[in-house]
Amino acid sequence: MDNRVPAVSMRGITKTFGPVVANHDVSIDIQRGEILSLLGENGSGKTTLMNMLSGIYFPDSGQIMVDGNEVSIRSPKDALDLGIGMIHQHFKLVDVMTATENIVLGLKEDKYDLKAASKRVKEICDRYGFDMNPDQKIYDMTVSQKQTVEIVKVLYRKADILILDEPTAVLTPQETEKLFDVLRNMRKDNKAVVIITHKLNEVLEISDRVDILRAGEFIGSLKTSETGVQEMTDMMVGHAVELNIDRPEPKNVEPRLEISGLTVRSEEGILKLDNVSFTANSGEILGIAGISNSGQKELLEAIAGLQPVESGDIFYLSEDGQKTSLIGKDPLDIQRLGVSLSFVPEDRLGMGLVGNMDLTDNMMLRSFRKGRGLFVDRGKPKGVATDVVNKLEVVTPNLATPVRRLSGGNVQKVLVGREIALAPSVLLTAYAVRGLDINSSYAIYDLMNQQKEKGVAVIYVGEDLDVLLELADRILILCGGKVSGIVDGRKTDKYEVGLMMTSLGGGEAR
Amino acid sequence: MNEKKRGPLAHIVKRPVISKQQAYAVRALSIVLAIIVCAIVTFLLTGDDPISVFKTIWEGSFGSERRFWVLMQNISILLIISLAMGPAFRMRFWNIGGEGQVMIGVLATASCMIMLGDKLPAPILIIVEIGAAIVAGAIWAAIPAFFKSNWNTNETLFTLMMNYVATQLVAYFIIIWESPRGSGKIGIINQKTMAGWLPQIGQYKYLLTVIVAIVLTVVLYIYMNYSKHGYELAVVGESERTARYIGIKVGRVFIRTMLLSGAICGLAGALMVAGTDHTMTTTLAGGRGFTAVMVAWMAQFNPVGMIFTSFLLAFLQKGAGEVATQFGLNQSFSDILSSIIIFFLIGCEFFIQYRIVFRKEAK
User: Fold this and answer.
1) Per the domain annotation, does A3 fall within a domain?
2) What is the pLDDT of residue A458?
3) Chain A residues within an 8 Å CB radius of B238
């Protein structure tokens, strides 16, 4: 079918980590002048495969050919020498340096000439349509600008095979558009581009071809013009999946949590939340949107009693109309007030659970103080653990397994299961489906809806706008620690929310 | 495929899971290897027959009934100090101040015996001196914990420095109380009246210490595994953020646990002064505050495991000393032998966490 010599072909690549097979006998081709999507669920081995191309890992077996010649890539430097550059999900930049300084960092050029470098950076930017100031310091940049620096850094090193690991995960819809324009320019320039992703609409929008991985194995290669979301999902998951999220009408809506003028500073004195006011209602899912680090974490932690508050008020309104202030109370105080507040934090194993403890011990984190006496009672937590495992279908060898050995989806089920077992009246969740496979994600959405129907006030901080728009009854948009707006989840669209994420009130209401 | 295209010769891989049996097998193997290396070193450096050296090591500990009891006492003191380290380490509070906490207990006991020896009836004196030692050790340990919980100071450095302060305090009081004058030593305290001496159980004065060690092992095992406090400090150790998330007051747990650690160390000091040695020297703790760190780590902070690890280390130290005297070698040689063994014991922990994978030939 295709007679071109591929820029890269990987043949029979296998990589294992201990007993975990990350890639098994995977063969893919990457062509010049083409954008290839590498699609797969979390844990399907996409990033591992590309890490072998960029010299982070070395394959256990298999061959890598660049332009038809067999090569051995043992370090990122080897990869760059072959023209392969990868932009990782987590940026590796020095904050106090400028874009140009970061770009030339580590290069062994004959002369250290920042001006010349800066000029070349500018050329690259103009050529592909990057919007970047070469002399700006990294700490002054938005996430999207930092990503641009990473991409230019790779281009500056003359890479013509670019790999981007989930590049849109941190971007707003508008920024994503811009990135895609740049990628299209690169394609025009006959570069080979690979994007690792699990977002199907993006695959369709940007790429020419899509290679699908599942559980470390190569499943198939499709032309994006000839496929659709459903086919790709089915290949990715391995069986047909229902892709709709329910959104039952809210019932018995009454104010449960009233937040007014909430202002929070970080330990370094940086303003994280600025005069935030809103109400969370029972029987409703309040979605919270915003680019990362816009104060989402601080907001939830302030409500949960983990974050000192500078000013403002947080009131809990109980069903019989009593109003209690939660300001200045720690989680234990809140629990003792009889306020049943559950919190599923972003950092599951670092905050919500203890990785090295088993399921039973994790279940009693919240309840171990119950009962008098010096000793803990592991009987009841064991019962709760059994219930959670059965109801949420947690895959675990037994209750005595340390939770860190469970997969991401199962860890999250344990955490959410425990928090729901507290019969909360307010449920706070931060990025509840981050890193989860499709089935687990939908299981979590279902749980959120069940809680909503039970009359719980659910606050759902999310990053995937498509999901927020389908799941949440109302969406509060944070922008730089301020409330940019609260919109009806049934009436808004992605672009309205996206605009409000980057400018207060969406730019017009200033 | 030519040479250039090969991967690295060997690389280090983290082991995913290792069963307890495997871990113990690795440790046992490391001891065997250590003994073999010791034998080779002995033979090469001294020309002595390694077998007879090992025999001497054995006899150093089990050669006579008295030696056996001395060993038991050594193990017990080391075990008690290690038990004290356990809870602090379980909560990742790097207390390396066991030495100082023991010494301050030593000082408290000795001062009670000297100052109150002729003023209080014997049973009350014993209660007072033990109480004083426990309180002194607890306070000594709680000071770094207090500073850490309030100002986030580094506990490792702080507890380490407290060791020197305690040792210097002991040195100072030795000069004040020295007897006979000018000897620079205290000598046996209350030699005639035996006031404040702990009662002797059976033929040897060592049994009491052994009993205390056994009781403490059981108590700490239960404390760490079944009590609410034990659960709290385990959570704090695993993740302070999780602890805060469930409303544990981390600073308070630090102080509370260090009070316990210090109290046990203080008690160890009292047992040494009032129970067996009946004198006070600056070297009474003899580095056991540090050896205990190793004992506790090797046992993974499990009190029952510490019985074995403290036995191992005390036994080796005794044996190595015996080798030096019997073969006319100097003390350094025994240090070399114990160092080799400790090197292997600690080194094997690396192989429990990681394994080395050699390149397989390409098919």
Assistant:
1) no
2) 96
3) 354-357
* Section B321-326 average pLDDT: 77
- The label of the residue with tokens 């937040």 reads A259
A357 and A273 share one domain:
no
Whether A152 and A201 map to the same domain: the answer is: yes
Pairwise CB contact (< 8 Å): B226 & A375:
yes
The reply to whether A215 and A186 lie within a common domain is yes
- Secondary structure of A360-399 as H, E, C letters: HHHHCCCCCCCCCCCECCCHHHHHHHHHHHHHCCCCCCCC
**Residues of chain A found within 8 Å of residue B220, distances taken between Cβ atoms:** none
How far does the CA of residue A352 sit from the closest CA of chain B (Å)?
6
- Best B90, B221, B233, B239 member to test A by mutation, with max A CBs in 10 Å, is B239
Q: Within a domain: residue A383?
A: yes
- Please, where are the H alpha helices in A207-281? 229-237
Domain termination residue (choose one: A203, A237, A271): A237
Q: Are residues A434 and A499 in the same domain?
A: yes
Cβ contacts (< 8 Å) between B247 and chain A: which residues? 305, 330-335
Select from B4, B226, B241 the Cβ nearest to the Cβ of A351: B241
A71 lies in the same domain as A208: yes
Q: Do A447 and A300 lie in a common domain?
A: yes
Measured between CB atoms, does B239 come within 8 Å of chain A?
Answer: yes
Tell me: do A443 and A497 sit in the same domain. Answer: yes
| Residue among B4, B228, B241 minimizing CB distance to A350 | B241
Q: Which one, of A356, A35, A12, A43, lies nearest residue A215 by Cα?
A: A43
- Is the pLDDT at B7 greater than 60? The verdict is no
Show the domain range for A352. Answer: 348-422
The DSSP-derived string for A260-310 is EEEEEE-TT--EEEEEEEEEEETTEEEEEE-STTSSHHHHHHHHTT-S--S
Amino acid in position A287 = G
- The kind and range of the H/E element at B211 are helix B207-226
* Domain parsing of chain B, residue ranges: 66-305
The C-alpha of B147 sits at a distance from chain A's nearest C-alpha, in angstroms, of: 19
Could you tell me the CATH number of the domain that includes residue A118? 3.40.50.300
CB pairs under 8 A between A and B: 87
Does the CB of B20 have a partner CB in chain A at under 8 Å?
Answer: no
- Checking if the pLDDT of B4 tops 70, the result is no
Residue A1 lies in a domain: no
B312: pLDDT strictly greater than 80 = yes
What pLDDT, on a 0 to 100 scale, did the predictor assign at position A2?
A: 56
Residue A87 amino acid letter: I
The total number of structural domains that make up chain A: 3
From the list A250, A203, A252, A253, the residue with the least C-alpha distance to A231 is A203
Q: For residue B239, give the nearest of A74, A354, A369 by CB distance.
A: A354
Q: Is B359 on the interface with A (CB under 8 A)?
A: no
pLDDT tens column, A244-257: 888 999 988 999 99
Q: What is the pTM of this model?
A: 0.79
Instruction: Tell me the one-letter amino acid at B121.
Output: P
| Residues A335, A444 within the same domain | yes
Is residue A180, in this structure, part of any structural domain at all?
Answer: yes
Lowest mean pLDDT among A7-16, A69-78, A283-292, B49-58: B49-58
